[in-house]
Amino acid sequence: AIAVVGNPRTHLFTPPTALQHRAPALYGTEDPREISTMVPVGIMPTGNRIIYLQNSGNFVYFSSHMIPYLQKIDGDADVWTIIDYWGEGHVAPPGDLVRSVLTAVLADPLDSAGAVRFRSVEDVRAHQAALNIRRMALR
């Protein structure tokens, strides 16, 4: 299977989250600690390909969701990243990019859509820094 995700939330129990509103009906509690004892929560190797689209202008999701996720996965995981600046904050990837990624996924090779195979958190941080420097230079 292939998952294409854009600015995903990787910490499901960190407020605010839709799970907070549904948790009592689903689990009888909204306490994340109790829920995590009922449901296995964590990063598990799946053997599936993940294409992770991330807005470099979304500091919270970049630093609090993407980086911790990438730090926990195996370096051999089939994870590809596309990081670019789409605006300040939680801005979705542009439709043209999503279309090109989906087209590439169906046809392969991902590098034609600008995806880069994840190798290390340091590489991802360096890529974001380069994008931010380039964006600042254009101001």
TrEMBL record:
Name of the protein in its database record: Uncharacterized protein
Recorded superkingdom: Bacteria
